[in-house]
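Hey, quick one: can you model this chain's 3D structure?
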Amino acid sequence: VSTRLARTTFACAECGHESLKWLGRCPGCASWNTFAEVLPAPRSAATARREGPRTEPVELSSLSGADEPRLSSGLPEFDRVLGGGIVAGSLVLVGGDPGIGKSTLLLQVAAGIASGREACPEPDRRALYVSGEGLFALPETNLEEVFRRADSLAPAALIVDSIQTVYTEAAGQAPGSVAQLRQSALELMRWGKTTGIPVFIIGHVTKDGDIAGPRLLEHIVDVVLYLEGERFSSYRLLRGVKNRFGSVDEIGVFEMTGEGMQAVENPSQAFIAERARDAVGSAIVATLEGSRPMLVEVQALTSPTVTPAPRRTANGLDVNRLILVSAVLSRRLSLPLASQDIIASVVGGLRVREPAADLGLALAIVSSQRDKPIAGDIIALGEIGLSGELRSVSQLDRRLAEAERLGFTRAIVPGSNAKGGPLRAGINVMPAPTVRDAVRLALA
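Sure thing. Here's the predicted structure for all 444 residues.
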């Protein structure tokens, strides 16, 4: 019987696309000169030792549907995004722009785990923070040495900062290479699953905002979190994009202060706190992030263009929705927007993705174009269709409850949402079948 020799492959350093030969341009991400040789990784003794005992197959119908016990991080907003807390043995990847606060956040998570008592009765509950940057608890980059120290310490959680700086002897290439990223992540996953200790790894991002080597890391880990925020804003949003143990719709809201990340318990109040009442080009929208309703301010500015093609610029909004809403307003309301640049923004650095914000965006544009403010006690909700109709939004009652709690007294909603009668006694629900009707109600 002939045996086949292990063959070397080539992988893109940006996206992880693999090929049997070197390529000048990556077919996966179209990057040039990013392919590097990936040598086959030898099976190390340390890896074989950590594999643990073999498990037997279990009949699917006999599996229990009970929730796994979760470890509290001490930060309710962080636990919310994870689905209720940290799952034992999970591998969590946290990404974000440089300086956004990834290390700060996970240092606070480590402190919360070490000081908490909810899920672990032992008084000596410790967290091990491994930094390849030369700081903090264990300044070490060799994973074999990290595992040796962690085995003797038996921490409640292991945090690695960052995955691009550590290396394992099982892969014979430099830290940060494709082979090292893959092998290091696999080694961390094996160690976490074998010991039952949750592992957090910080990942640097590329110039496009993606975690370096995303196809290598995101498919290996159990949870992927992104820490987002504007560079000059104090607010930070922790968003889940993959979660094997919970929903990916939840977000956590933090404020970066001199004492670290502070949870924002009332995001709606924070995002609209600095809004000038009766401001021109401003509308309040009740958006829904997972199970949490939040009020955000949408601003728009129209200005005569100096170029043949007017610009459409969006910050925190989908630029395609801005183009759609602008076209509907031009066609259905006969607004002269073809000669106007339109700049739209969501205040506070939040990114609004749902179409329910269309009506608020439209009202802000009309308010700016007519130089007439929208009353400060009005919120607007609704998706705009191409014919100018307003389409219903989901979970309207929860959105209205949040608006009522913050003192808003009127809500413009799609007519189809109000067919069942008044939704809340404390807020005046004004149905609008079309965007033209909504403009009439808001700017009366």
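One thing worth noting: The two ends are 86 Å apart (CA to CA).
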